[in-house]
């Protein structure tokens, strides 16, 4: 993927103007949904460090490892609850479509919870449905 290609998060904006500043640490997510989208883009682009940094320290694993056999191909946001720029918590429901090089495919459906800590949105946990 080239930096000027459309961002994998689904906004239709070029990556360089969308999630790249978040991944580089030069901007922060303003809403829980924006963090969710940027985390999906991080999965799609292999940005494990960003996933680790945006995971709440109370619930994050010791390390984040991505499966190189999985390609994340499309994100659908299906619901949001709170998580606005002035709120402290929020939830985002989504369907993340994936495929593998050997022809496998599927959809991860999850409702994720987010919390703001020191002005930064962080991923708390999620319920896979």
Automatic annotation (TrEMBL):
SUPFAM superfamilies (UniProt xref): NTF2-like
Which InterPro entries does the annotation name? NTF2-like_dom_sf, SEC_C_motif, YchJ-like, YchJ-like_M
Tell me, what's a Pfam family for it?
A: SEC-C
Q: Taking every annotated instance into account, which residue ranges of this chain make up the domain YchJ-like middle NTF2-like? A: 31-126
Annotated signal sequence is none
Q: Which domain of life is it from?
A: Bacteria
Q: Which PANTHER family match?
A: ADENYLATE CYCLASE-ASSOCIATED CAP C-TERMINAL DOMAIN-CONTAINING PROTEIN, UPF0225 PROTEIN SCO1677
Q: Which family does it belong to?
A: Belongs to the UPF0225 family.
Please report the name of this protein according to its UniProt entry: UPF0225 protein GCM10022215_13410
Species annotation: Nocardioides fonticola
């Amino acid at each position: 993927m080239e930096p000027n290609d459309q961002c994998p998060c689904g906004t239709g904006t070029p990556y360089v103007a969308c999630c790249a500043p978040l991944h580089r640490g030069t901007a922060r997510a303003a809403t829980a949904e924006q963090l969710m989208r940027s985390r999906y883009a991080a999965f799609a682009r292999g940005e494990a460090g960003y996933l680790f940094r945006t995971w709440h320290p109370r619930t994050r694993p010791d390390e984040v490892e991505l499966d190189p056999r999985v390609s994340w191909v499309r994100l659908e946001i299906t619901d949001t609850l709170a998580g606005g720029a002035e709120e402290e918590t929020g939830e985002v429901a989504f369907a993340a479509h994936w495929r593998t090089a050997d022809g496998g495919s599927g959809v991860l459906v999850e409702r994720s919870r987010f919390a703001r800590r020191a002005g930064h949105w962080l991923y708390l946990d999620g319920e896979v449905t």
